[in-house]
Design brief:
single chain, about 160 residues, alpha/beta, 4-stranded parallel β-sheet, two-stranded antiparallel sheet, 6 helices, globular, binds iron/sulfur cluster
Length: about 160
C-alpha cells in the first residue's frame, strides 16, 4: 500500500489548456491542438482545463481582453476583463481561474502548460485590451492565480 502511495506521489501530473489537447473550447469554437500535449493527456500525465468554460462562459463567446493591466492586476481589482462588445466578464474569468486552481490542487499538479496570449492562460504575453492584435508583456488571469499558488506556468511555445 505504501508503495502504491509513493508511486502515485511521484507521478507529476500537469495541468494543460484544454484547447491545446484539441478541445474546441476557444471563443470561436476552434482548438489549438498540439500533438505532444494531446499525448500527455492520453498517457494520464496531464489534466485539461478550460478556465473560461469553467467560469460559466458559453462557447462560442465574444473574444475578451484584459484592460488596464494583466492577470495579476485583475486578481488585485486593478484591471478588468472586457469582451469586444463592451461586457465586463471579469467575474467569470476569476471564477474560472479559481475552479481551474481547484482542479490543479486536487490533481496535485505543480506545473501547467497553458496557451500563450490568452487573457486566461497567457504566461508571457497577452493582448493589450485594444482589440487591435497588439501584444504586451503579462500573464492571463488563471496563469496569475496559478503562479500565486506555487504552480509553475509555461506555454506551448516553450
Ligand atoms: Fe484555451 Fe485557456 Fe482559452 Fe480555454 S481559456 S480556450 S483553455 S486558452
Amino acid at each position: 500500500m505504501s508503495q502504491i502511495i509513493e508511486e502515485r506521489s511521484d507521478k507529476k501530473v500537469k495541468i494543460v489548456s484544454a484547447c491545446l489537447m484539441g478541445c474546441q473550447c476557444r471563443y470561436d469554437k476552434k482548438d489549438n491542438r498540439v500533438e505532444q500535449i494531446e499525448q500527455l493527456v492520453k498517457e494520464g500525465k496531464a489534466v485539461p482545463v478550460c478556465p473560461e468554460q469553467l467560469g460559466g462562459l458559453p462557447t462560442p463567446r465574444p473574444p475578451a481582453e484584459i484592460v488596464g493591466g494583466d492577470g495579476f492586476d485583475v486578481l488585485d481589482g486593478k484591471a478588468r476583463v472586457i469582451d469586444d462588445r463592451g461586457n465586463d466578464v471579469t467575474a467569470d474569468f476569476i471564477q474560472g481561474a479559481q475552479q481551474a486552481l481547484r482542479i490543479a490542487q486536487t490533481a496535485g499538479a505543480a506545473e501547467a502548460v497553458l496557451k500563450e496570449r490568452s487573457p486566461s492562460c497567457g504566461s508571457a504575453a497577452i493582448y493589450d485590451g485594444t482589440f487591435s492584435k497588439t501584444k504586451r508583456t503579462g500573464v492571463g488571469v488563471t496563469a496569475a492565480l496559478f503562479i500565486r499558488n506555487g504552480i509553475a506556468v509555461t506555454s506551448e511555445e516553450n
